[in-house]
Amino acid sequence: xxxxxxxxxxxxxxxxxxxxxxxxxxxxxxxxxxxxxxxxxxxxxxxxxxxxxxxxxxxxxxxxxxxxxxxxxxxxxxxxxxxxxxxxxxxxxxxxxxx
Amino acid sequence: xxxxxxxxxxxxxxxxxxxxxxxxxxxxxxxxxxxxxxxxxxxxxxxxxxxxxxxxxxxxxxxxxxxxxxxxxxxxxxxxxxxxxxxxxxxxxxxxxxx
Amino acid sequence: xxxxxxxxxxxxxxxxxxxxxxxxxxxxxxxxxxxxxxxxxxxxxxxxxxxxxxxxxxxxxxxxxxxxxxxxxxxxxxxxxxxxxxxxxxxxxxxxxxx
Amino acid sequence: xxxxxxxxxxxxxxxxxxxxxxxxxxxxxxxxxxxxxxxxxxxxxxxxxxxxxxxxxxxxxxxxxxxxxxxxxxxxxxxxxxxxxxxxxxxxxxxxxxx
Amino acid sequence: xxxxxxxxxxxxxxxxxxxxxxxxxxxxxxxxxxxxxxxxxxxxxxxxxxxxxxxxxxxxxxxxxxxxxxxxxxxxxxxxxxxxxxxxxxxxxxxxxxx
Amino acid sequence: xxxxxxxxxxxxxxxxxxxxxxxxxxxxxxxxxxxxxxxxxxxxxxxxxxxxxxxxxxxxxxxxxxxxxxxxxxxxxxxxxxxxxxxxxxxxxxxxxxx
Amino acid sequence: xxxxxxxxxxxxxxxxxxxxxxxxxxxxxxxxxxxxxxxxxxxxxxxxxxxxxxxxxxxxxxxxxxxxxxxxxxxxxxxxxxxxxxxxxxxxxxxxxxx
Amino acid sequence: xxxxxxxxxxxxxxxxxxxxxxxxxxxxxxxxxxxxxxxxxxxxxxxxxxxxxxxxxxxxxxxxxxxxxxxxxxxxxxxxxxxxxxxxxxxxxxxxxxx
Amino acid sequence: xxxxxxxxxxxxxxxxxxxxxxxxxxxxxxxxxxxxxxxxxxxxxxxxxxxxxxxxxxxxxxxxxxxxxxxxxxxxxxxxxxxxxxxxxxxxxxxxxxx
Amino acid sequence: xxxxxxxxxxxxxxxxxxxxxxxxxxxxxxxxxxxxxxxxxxxxxxxxxxxxxxxxxxxxxxxxxxxxxxxxxxxxxxxxxxxxxxxxxxxxxxxxxxx
Lengths: 99, 99, 99, 99, 99, 99, 99, 99, 99, 99
Hints:
homodecamer, 4 strands, muconolactone Delta-isomerase (chains A, B, C, D, E, F, G, H, I, J)
């Protein structure tokens, strides 16, 4: 099932550059594992902002919540989750992913 | 280039069922042509609402504006456009479309 | 899976008392069928408003969207859907329904 | 009587991991006592957020206020309380709890 | 128990002066009966607006909802209900009403 | 003249428990003096929140502003003031206070 | 006493040009009488909008409410009232009006 | 030309009482010079808030911006500027200031 | 002096296609005259919306208000006006226009 | 292509005057280079605020995002990006820049 997840990242002043770089690397590795597993289908950067538009494809709410709360940057995020369904205008192949 | 386009449709009371069905069919055909041309990459229905999350992939703002204002349902829509860039965590293939 | 669905009903002036009574009866029958099927777990009236807080328990987003858009009063509603997961503080039996 | 209580938790940076874990354990024990007493009927986690949707069943506003302000995490919460009544579409058994 | 009820009245253009005067008279009689019964403790007009701040004193949410939805002007209102408890700074007599 | 005053209290982390208790005691004494003088007619706690709904009865804006800015907790408050007039539906005695 | 009153005028489509012109003339005459009486101290047009910023100087809330609800355009307005007091930085003469 | 300037002052915890008193004195002197020059026509305190409604009368945007950014309390303010024009209902003398 | 003017156009259902086309032509002619006079410096279409971002360059608020309220589409617009000053980072030539 | 970029700068208390002056100088130099390259077409200061309205003219979202995130003051900004297209009423020369 598809979920749009909009993540708004707010870096507190107290977090050092080193720590923040460390967190961001961990975040990237964590995200890319999910992408390779086919759970994290799309991610785009919102131009001019430290936020993104992500599309997740998982089986249950619980699975998504578990994925999100274990994001290394989760403590520094405001997250908005929107459940998505296939659109009647969408071509079938738009919802079929290889894996 | 990628744009998120969120379309919120508000059907006025004065539009008959027939007219609305006609408009929706025209909208689907128009959208699917764009999808086959590779300009309209993704569309999902927001669960419980008459709105969608769409991802367009076009070369210029002008092209997107032209596409949107010619949507048969455009006069009945509130539209929010968000320019998107590739995200550093995204896998390269996530931004490469066959056509 | 659980979803909170908040429904805000706005009756247009043009809808007659008879038509509205008809719609509300159809809505109640439709809802109670879903309740007996175990898909519509909870519904409460928000005091002082023509809106409700509902908890649905269905397997997919698509199933929920289909249920909602076929509500007789759907054309007269603003709907907000919030996906819910089990809470770590919740007692197990709170999420186990007989049917 | 039923109340929806939406709790939005904001952990300040200054609270250590140990202190926060301690608070969360106290919160769980406190909540589960109320659940066993039949005052705290339902709690769901909002997917992707550190907030919940709770349904309380108590006799007076004062009782609810007392319960809420004694939540161990109360100082770190924004709380929204919505009084709920039985809905005309609801099946009688939906409002009848064993204890 | 005390509830603040803020009522915002919106008169549609289609309602004639006669009908509106009739509704307002019915509203006043209905309200004053409740006031004499001790259920409708306070009402103030918000200066410059067609809205009021009311304090109701009833035993249950259901009773309040029933009272509100039977207000003659209810179909033309947006209503916000806020449950109130006695304040620790309040003098005891502020919460004791003769009847 | 009547004013609704909604006070939203935000305790900064830096204020110690002792200091806060001191401030709250001073606030209660200050408020109760005003209540006995008949200037502070009503106060209710908003259930689940650290905010209140108060009704003041003073002769001028200046007098109210002076009262409010000298509240011991004023520096920690967001305050919303709404001027109120007698409502045409209100019974005369609802606006007549013994002193 | 001073009140800022912000008036936002919304002309319904159903009101004819003649009727609207009539209402506006009545509004101007009504307003200018109040100005000559010293109750309506200031009025400015918000540039680009059909709204104004007005400063009234009357003795009671009730007097202001009566003035406002009898504005010929009142049924077509959203009105926001803000009670104002003399500012400690203001020069005394700024609050002294000849009549 | 007239501008409404609404200033919302937020005193950070870190600013000592002495420093704040110093800033407020400087602010008053600075404001009163502008008042005597006829650039700062009106200022009222919003009752119950640390904000004001001011009317400036200057020749250009640049002049106003320069005045505002040099307010001693400017770093601690949120400022909203609304350009104002003479209102057709206003009496001519309402816009004519001695100096 | 520079003003940003954001115009949001809302076409009522009751306005015929012919009438709307007429209004839009009149609007374009009116706007282009102002552009040639150097009062209307910039206009861009907001992608996906029936709104624009315009930059006007006129001498007084009154002049701008007069220009705006005489726009043929003014009755169908929500308008937001923001006064702008030269920015310290801007190159001088950015504010110098040939005529 | 044109983008409106609205930048809202929030200087944290912890940043010293020296550091802030350094950042602002770097910001100006960075901006003026972009202006001379023809990528940063317009910038105006919003009167009374530490925010600006900027018009960028670049070829892709990615280029804009790269420009913005490398602004020296970017970590202290809230940024809103609005894609703009040529307006049908605009004179051709309004969109033609020498370089």
